[in-house]
Amino acid sequence: MSRIELSRAKSAPVPLGTLIGRELRNGKVEKPFVKYGQSGLAKKGEDYFLIKTDCLRVPGDASTAFSVFAVFDGHNGISAAIFAKENLLSNVLSAIPQDISRDAWLQALPRALVVGFVKTDIEFQQKGETSGTTATFVLVDGWTVTVASVGDSRCISDTQGGVVSLLTVDHRLEENAEERERVTASGGEVGRLNVFGGNEVGPLRCWPGGLCLSRSIGDTDVGEFIVPIPHVKQVKLSNVGGRLIIASDGIWDALSSDMAAKSCRGLPAELAAKLVVKEALRSRGLKDDTTCLVVDIIPSDLPVLPPIPRKKHNMLTSLLFFGKKSENSVNKATNKLSAVGVVEELFEEGSAMLTERLGKDFPLNKNSGIFRCAVCQVDQPPGDDGLSVNSGPFFSPASSPFLCTNCQKKKDAMEGKRPSRASITA
Ligand SMILES: [Zn+2]
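That's the protein-serine/threonine phosphatase sequence above. Prediction below.
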């Protein structure tokens, strides 16, 4: 059982429908405000932001607005970071079916994020450039926060109960044994840099290439086992709101999640982002690009996030878990309090296996005889190369999503299978 499965087993995610039902019973659903601030100091100039607060789920319908925030920390050049900033969002959105309800849309997001990340990586690969980038991509729709991430730029949440949680996983070879195993099994070599006399220095890296990360967008020259498949986590904040801090490793190498959250509590987002950067620089100096985005999700009847109670919160939380059980008798005040610090986990998955992440229920339009690739969404009529890859005795539309030739090749390469090379040696 992987670590993620374990953590899921501990607290089973609550189905979105159940939550929405509960919210409706407790009163009207009001959309929170989203306020944000950004700050950054460049050392190498390879960090990029994406901020888009005017996205619409249904074109022309302002009530379906959602926001996207992302940090891209490039390495070995800036082209992958720029390419991801410009293409990732549209690649994610184009993988979500049209004309579906809000909760179906939110449920489709985790898979669409996987598709969008892989598609962006394939497209960048086709440009023939060699840089790579981390991508921490955060979508805020009402109280629901969905985070997809490759690399080591983190997103944390700080809720009104004073609970700080990490919404991403660090894809660093040094710190992630599961990823080391995967990379090694797929043909990569993991080790430290060798200097004169065979002394090993620095963090664990993947060779050839010497990358410290196990997942990224780009890095075509390092090896395909450095995959673009994101860890995805979807949570629902309580209706007292909370703060997200999205930042590159320049921040996280200097500050723990707790330190970053506490350094800026009580301040508006714009000021908070500046303070987190300042705090990181104070303790470590400007050693790397240091980029920070602060996103506040604020109840619509409040001007800013209310201050977090300092000491009493343990007692409060335990008291209020009682309040939560008697849902029928809540008045507005206790309803607000009962949700303090409670973040409901809706979804979490981090597997690096593409097929697992795409799931089994991809629609195939069999009547028209056209197969649509689950990743690049290109239609492929039967008889083309793509179909023949999947149409052998083991191809069953019910159990595996259809992939075109190109995307199938990418999938095999990510898993360390190299059919082209194997057929040469055979
Ligand atoms: Zn494809």
